[in-house]
Amino acid sequence: MKKAFLIFVAATMFTVISLDSHAQIFWNNSAVFAGNSSSYMSVPNSTSLNITGSFSVEAWVNPGSLSGSSKGIISKGGTLGTSLRLGVRILTSGRISLLTNGSQRILSRNSSAIQPGNWTHISCTFNSETDTFKIYINGALDTSAFAAGVEPQTNSDSLFVGISGNTTPFNGKLDEVRLWNSELTSNQISSNMRTSLGASGGVYSGLVLSLTFQREFSSGLSSMDFSDFNNHGNFRNVSGSLNSISEVSVIGYNPENTITLNNCIYFPGSTDSYMSGKDTAALNPQNGITLECWIYPLDITTGRIFTKGNAYTFNYTPAGLTAAINGTILSANAQIPFRKWSHIAFTYNSDGRFKFLINGLLVKSGLHSLGTINVNTDSLYIGGGPGGISEFFGYIDEVRITNKSKSISDIQKFVYASLNKNLDPNVIDNNINYSFDGNTFDNNDNGGPKLKFRENAAFSNPGRVTKIPVAPLNQFNENLFSNGFNINQPVRFISDMKILRDSQIVNINTSINNIKLFIGLNHTKLTDLEISLVSPHGDSITVFNNRSTNSSDNNLITIFDDFADSSLLSNRYASFYCKVKPENNMNNVFMNKNAQGKWHLVIKDEAALDSGILYAWGLNFNDADVKNIDLSAYNLIQGFYEPNSNLQTPDTLTVNVRSSSFPFNIVSTAKTQMKSDGECLFSFIPNVSIINGDNYIIELSHRNSINTWSTGISFNFSEAILNIRDSNTLVTGLNLMQVDASPVRHAMYGGDVNKDGIVDVSDALLIENDALNFASGYIVTDLTGDNFTDASDAAIADNNSANFISVILP
């Protein structure tokens, strides 16, 4: 007996460890009932549960068996709900029965019988004013009936889930069990059925019980009520099960077949339609603040995004972005496109430094000394505020409030990541985060209040409402996505019956042993699309081919991973979020090939009438936790370049990344082979020395050329481009030679053989001596790359010496 106990404990500990190692805020869990009278959930009576008028009951049901007796879904009245003041059952025939006061009032049709082993959404409603009962199956009205004077009688009994009397235990899985104190309309039922609801206020005011079976901040089964009425329950012999369709028995980041996991908030722009949260200490940072979120404006009128009294505000305007600290307005004239997703951020430090960013890129910075941020007791408002002033019209997602002025690098790291408590990159700081994925609490548990809906603000419900945009965020938080991905953010239109070809350059010179592909796009009909990935070597593979969801969600926000648990199949998932196998195995094509070079994502829209936008896509190689820092330079060498062919003889180039202030210390160094067109791909091992958003100077060094120093340059998303081949304006002192007029080409001056920073007689003497001795091979006196030192090399050095060509420093 002791041995058996130890085995059980060990197994339990292993399960807990496995869950926490892949912890998710809302990785959809369901409750599994054993089908006997000792397996159920009880919820203590409360005023809100003692319903004596209109009501609605909702649930996702997946019975394991219908044999024996009726299966209780929800019941209230008497022991285990026996007296059925209110109850919903599935009969052995698969028909849904709604009861009040011990009597059946309505029965669903035979033709819509619930099938064992399949998920089905059911909703039963009663309107006490019209005495009307209705049953909906999968969001569609199945049947209705009338009965007068049959409102549920008042009682003080507990509410039960998974049973409705000793002989009616439910056998199977239940999820998203909800009770409302009002009759839901057909539109409300249809819109909400594929959204997990942790909501209160506004359009959700009638929600008195919402059992999502999730925990707030960790994986595992929970009896917590996610409505605002705190009707928390107690399990008896109930276990948990993930609803994702996984082909192996592991906990992963798999698509769901019942609800969509990537939601946001819709703000209709109407009076007093916003979200609010009570004041907390975490909402009152004093020494610095960062406000950020994704927005999708539906018009170009001014709309409030964040407001907390006179302490801070952040607004969208036709001209760009504005923010206010202590009542003083700061602005950035950088227009935000409407009907497109944009990530916006504002930072302020108490020393007066502030920044505005759009899609992770700096659009304005400045200094305005406003001191520490005011502390007040005002509520936080999102999307508007009381009084109907500047309500935002559009969608908002992933709202973050951090109690410091975050660096550009910190913001860029997680633009495309949906965060939660278990995967909070700023554990030292207060980093309030609202993901709005079916809930309105602070997903990081950093002191943010639970938000309430006001008037007509609501979840966007992409799983049931057609053509709803979804922010390009992914919750695949292994290694804190998107830290290890090469991200490209084209924001390009996917047109009807056309091909979109987007490219990104990968600088790291490594052999591929595993590859992942992130795609973030919105579309109105995924079955129109064929998507392929093309390597620098010309190898191509189709990763997505005209697939569809089982819902209205036609957006593709996912990571294609050969080792994902779920295959890419049509009509199987509510959305393809957040990790799935590609159409074809990518490693079969790309493994052992070099990752370096230009990769292409090719999207074919193969049918008319529907379109979309590609927001971002990214590549991860060899399961990298953090991507390298890349510099793509375009550079030519005088003498090595041939104007007739517009090509040069390839050679080695070294770059030093230097501090932008004197004495210009070297931060990092890399070396690579220049290509014949001048392309040079440098990759630096990630470290704290090169910081995204900071300013640097690039020094380019060639074995026998004058070192060239760039003007200021910054890295964004761990990438930078320096093209001094086509323009000399990016070089300190314009210190390049024009070597071609059509096309215009510039090159580094040749002739600094002894690398002392100047072309002079000492260099000329070295060249002359080697020429007289017919020196050949890879030697520094060869200024033309032909492996000989001769008069042509001497001519270059003599000419540059006569013109006093030397290094020009910043």
Give descriptors for this structure.
810 residues, mainly beta, Jelly Rolls, 4 domains, 8-stranded antiparallel beta sheet
Question: What features would you describe in this structure?
Answer:
- The strands form ten sheets. Strands 1, 3, 8, 9, 10, 12, 13 and 15 form an eight-stranded antiparallel beta sheet that branches.
- The protein has about 800 residues and is mainly beta.
- Helices cover about 10% and strands about 35% of the residues.
- A hairpin with a 2-residue loop joins strand 50 (about 735-740) and strand 51 (about 745).
- It contains six helices and 51 strands.
- Helix 5 (about 760-770) packs antiparallel against helix 6 (about 790-800).
- The model is unreliable at about 1-25 and about 245-250 (pLDDT under 50).
- The protein folds into four domains: about 30-240, Jelly Rolls (Sandwich), CATH 2.60.120; about 265-460, Jelly Rolls (Sandwich), CATH 2.60.120; about 485-620, Sandwich (Jelly Rolls), CATH 2.60.120.260; about 630-800, Sandwich (Immunoglobulin-like), CATH 2.60.40.4130.
